[in-house]
């Protein structure tokens, strides 16, 4: 496992997921069946370090053996607004204790519209998903043949936080205006500057290069963006400080 992948895996822990309501029985409309379904419904408030604040509704249909994860509220911005009301469906796998969803990734086209495409090769699935979840062929997960070489991602039955993680990783992260890698570098840089308190930019560049492998040119850009966002300020000649 590369250093880059290890750092991205750590970032999953910075996605804060909190259940805010648990309804033992409620109803929802199943678009694929075009009918009202009844089952357990839970609401989760999510703070994703990369994309922002979310509200999810998770509907458990025990009769059909499937779970629907629906984005009720998305972060601001044209790409994310198009995910509002979007759903991801998980169903029971033939592999005991696991459920699956068909792996698909979003992208923004030239007209600013969010499109979703099925992942057909393991190389298309982001490393952070491959390292945290099982990725298998549709046939291996379901025992059924379908046209095309579809892949699925799997997680444990009942692990609704993992399902929300998969929604974010497949639907939200690919269209984020900031890449996970750049966000990682920004968080590393902020943590370093908090540790050093008031320090010289030269020292920040030296330590960040040694510990995180961030080049000086990248650090200058990151510092400029953090200063623009009001997260840090320059103090004196060549020094910088984090604004909490």
Walk me through the structure.
This protein is α+β, with helices and mostly antiparallel strands. The chain folds into 2 domains: about 170 residues, no CATH class; about 60 residues, Arc Repressor Mutant, subunit A (Orthogonal Bundle), CATH 1.10.10. The chain is about 35% helix and about 35% strand. The chain has 8 helices and 13 strands. The longest helix is centred in the C-terminal third of the chain and has 17 residues. The radius of gyration is 21 Å and the shape is elongated.
**Mean pLDDT over the full residue set:** 88
Q: Which strand order does the major sheet show?
A: 1-2-3-4-5-6-10-9
Gross morphology is elongated
Low-confidence stretches: none
Indicate the radius of gyration in whole angstroms: 21 Å
Briefly summarize what is shown.
This protein is of the alpha+beta class and 244 residues long. It has eight helices and 13 strands.
Keywords:
Arc Repressor Mutant, subunit A, single chain, 2 domains, alpha+beta, three-stranded antiparallel sheet, 244 residues, 33% helix
Q: What is the fold's blueprint, element by element?
A:
Layout (H helix, E strand, L loop, with lengths): L2 H10 L3 E15 L4 E14 L3 E10 L4 E8 L4 H4 L5 E6 L5 E5 L1 E5 L5 E5 L8 H6 L1 E4 H5 L8 E6 L3 H13 L7 H17 L2 E2 H12 L3 H13 L3 E3 L4 E4 L2
Antiparallel strand pairs: 1-2, 2-3, 3-4, 4-5, 5-6, 6-10, 7-8, 9-10, 11-13, 12-13
Helix pairs in contact: 6-7, 6-8
């Amino acid at each position: 496992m590369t250093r880059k992948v290890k750092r991205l895996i750590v970032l999953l822990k910075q996605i804060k997921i909190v259940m805010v309501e648990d309804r033992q029985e409620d109803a929802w409309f199943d678009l694929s069946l075009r009918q009202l379904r009844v089952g357990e419904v839970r609401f989760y408030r999510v703070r994703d370090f990369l994309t922002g604040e979310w509200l999810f509704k998770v509907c458990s249909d025990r009769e059909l053996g499937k779970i629907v994860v629906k984005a009720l509220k998305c972060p601001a911005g044209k790409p994310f607004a198009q995910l509002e009301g979007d759903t991801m469906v998980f169903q029971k796998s033939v592999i005991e204790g696991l459920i699956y969803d068909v792996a698909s990734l979003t992208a923004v086209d030239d007209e600013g519209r969010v499109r979703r495409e099925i992942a057909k090769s393991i190389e298309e699935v982001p490393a952070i998903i491959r390292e945290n979840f099982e990725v298998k062929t549709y046939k291996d997960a379901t025992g059924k043949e379908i046209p095309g070489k579809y892949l699925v991602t799997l997680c444990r039955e009942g692990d609704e936080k993992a399902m929300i993680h998969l929604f974010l990783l497949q639907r939200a992260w690919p269209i984020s205006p900031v890449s996970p890698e750049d966000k990682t570098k920004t968080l590393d840089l902020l943590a370093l500057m908090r540790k050093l308190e008031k320090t010289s930019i030269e020292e920040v560049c030296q330590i960040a290069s040694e510990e995180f492998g961030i080049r000086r040119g990248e650090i200058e850009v990151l510092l400029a963006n953090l200063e623009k966002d009001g997260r840090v300020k320059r103090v004196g000649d060549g020094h910088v400080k984090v604004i909490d």
